[in-house]
């Protein structure tokens, strides 16, 4: 499985190369821009993975609380 950081780095590089191709300049015109795009894309990809993990844990917690409340209500109504 491809990690989020690697996927983001590939997307960042692809966006930079595509931008240079649209402007009809050499693809590797300013290599330092590619490094910035790769770093930024890796950072964004990593943050997306962290966000997904955090929201999954929050959802599990909310579902557990809801199940607990439902158990209490079932016992109360019986």
Largest β-sheet summary: none
Number-wise, the strands total: 0
Poorly predicted sequence stretches spanning 5 or more consecutive residues: none
Fraction of residues in helix: over 70%
Approximate strand percentage = under 5%
Number of separate helices? 2
Mind explaining what this structure looks like?
This protein has 78 residues and is mostly helical. It has one domain. The protein is 85% helix and 0% strand. The protein is built from two helices and no strands. It has helices at 4-22, 31-77. It is rod-shaped, with a radius of gyration of 22 Å. It starts with a helix and ends with a helix. The model has no long low-confidence stretch (mean pLDDT 91).
Helix/strand layout:
Layout: H1 4-22, H2 31-77
Summarize this structure as a short list of keywords or feature phrases:
about 80 residues; mainly alpha; 2 helices; about 85% helix
At a glance:
The protein is mostly helical.
């Amino acid at each position: 499985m491809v990690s989020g950081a690697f996927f983001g780095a590939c997307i960042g590089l692809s966006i930079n190369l595509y931008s240079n191709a649209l402007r009809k300049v050499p693809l590797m015109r300013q290599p330092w821009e590619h490094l910035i795009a790769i770093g930024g894309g890796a950072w964004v990809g990593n943050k997306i993975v962290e966000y997904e993990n955090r929201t999954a844990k929050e959802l599990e917690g909310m579902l557990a609380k809801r199940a607990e409340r439902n158990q209490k209500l079932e016992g109360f109504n019986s």
